[in-house]
User: Which sequence fits this backbone?
């Protein structure tokens, strides 16, 4: 397990390397490291802005080689978002290291957790809101798959679809209460009655009867959250959601 001291030392080393890299013209800390909310479990999230004529593939590979050779990386994952390539490393110490590589034309704050270390950044991007209608749509889609999985005796598929359905319900609850809906960040701040209702709706086993009960309970919560967002849509969906909960 990594220590806070080791994490801080690694981040300083990476920032020093970025300052010395001729292909990097700016850098910023993202996430909890930028907001002052780091704890013992926080990762390192460092954004690197590349000069306009830099060969991104070569720069990314050069940094990747360093992370594996000098800092104990054991695996990596690539995620594309907001015009940048996020290369996420898992280190042998279990520390997560996120290095994002940004074209100069895209390097800007995309949220409140952005602390410029050197160089320049463009003005902040417009805030991207979660679309409640899309979240509701994903929720009933997962509800459909729960029903068909149970009808086909595909127990574990039903379990997975129920988990996805629950996640959408929680995201809608976060939106209703003005909390961060992304990646469960605001869930623990939801009112106790909301969390208790979701916990009660969660299946206690993988038996068909229990999964059926869970589906009905979660779909009822989905109907409530939908009504909080759009009463007209809730009126249209409620009879169908009730059908989905009546798995035979």
Assistant:
């Amino acid at each position: 397990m990594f220590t806070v001291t080791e994490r801080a030392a690694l981040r300083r080393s990476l920032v020093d390397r970025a300052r010395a890299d001729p292909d990097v013209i700016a850098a910023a800390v993202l996430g909890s490291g930028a907001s002052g909310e780091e704890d013992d479990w926080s990762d390192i999230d460092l954004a690197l802005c590349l000069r306009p004529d830099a060969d991104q593939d070569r720069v990314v590979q050069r940094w990747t080689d360093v992370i594996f050779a000098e800092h104990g990386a054991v695996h990596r994952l690539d995620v594309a978002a907001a015009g940048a390539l996020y290369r996420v490393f898992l280190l042998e110490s279990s520390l997560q290291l996120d290095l994002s590589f940004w074209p100069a034309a895209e390097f800007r704050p995309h949220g409140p957790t952005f602390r410029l270390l050197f160089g320049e950044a463009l003005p902040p991007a417009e805030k991207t809101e979660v679309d409640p209608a899309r979240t509701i749509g994903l929720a009933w889609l997962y509800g459909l798959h729960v029903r068909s999985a149970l009808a086909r005796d595909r127990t574990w598929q039903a379990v997975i679809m129920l988990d996805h359905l629950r996640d959408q319900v929680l995201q809608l609850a976060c939106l209703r209460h003005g909390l961060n809906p992304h990646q469960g960040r605001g869930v623990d701040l939801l009112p106790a009655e909301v969390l208790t209702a979701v916990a009660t709706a969660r299946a206690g086993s993988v038996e068909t009867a229990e999964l059926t009960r869970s589906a009905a309970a979660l779909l009822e919560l989905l109907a409530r959250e939908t009504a909080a967002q759009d009463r007209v849509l809730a009126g249209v969906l409620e009879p169908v959601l009730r059908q989905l909960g009546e798995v035979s």
Summary: The chain has two domains: 4-118, 132-244.
